[in-house]
Amino acid sequence: MSEDPETGTSKDCMLMSHFEEPKLSDDEEPPTEQDKRKKLLALEDPVHSVSLQHFVYEKLKAQQALMGDPGFGVLMETVDTVLVRQLQEFLQNL
Q: Which long-range contacts (C-beta less than 8 Å, at least 24 apart) are formed by 38-45?
């Protein structure tokens, strides 16, 4: 996660939404066709196309639906309190 300077909120820095040609300075060479293919391939990788926050949230919601609210509450009581707090902080900006 990194802070978005425009909005001041946290954003997933691994997400890439589309292919952009990088702006080059005078002393840089343009990307090769191989570089472009690598970039396009990386865009297909789930690590660059799926938000970790949304993924974790959806998995927790699915588990809660599967177990029911009481069962999920009991399960979450077994999780370390520091981890629960970190999860809450991580998911608060959804």
A: 42/16, 43/16, 43/18, 43/19
CB 12 within 8 A of CB 53: yes
pTM of the model: 0.63
Q: Please work out, in degrees rounded to the nearest 5, the angle formed at the alpha carbon of residue 55 by the alpha carbons of 49 and 59.
A: 155
- Residue of 59, 48, 50, 47 whose CA lies nearest to 87: 59
Beta bridge partners of 3: 10
pLDDT tens for the 94 residues of the chain, in order: 567 677 766 666 666 665 555 566 767 888 889 988 988 888 888 887 888 999 999 999 999 999 999 999 999 999 999 999 999 999 997 7
**What are the structural domain ranges in the chain?**
50-91
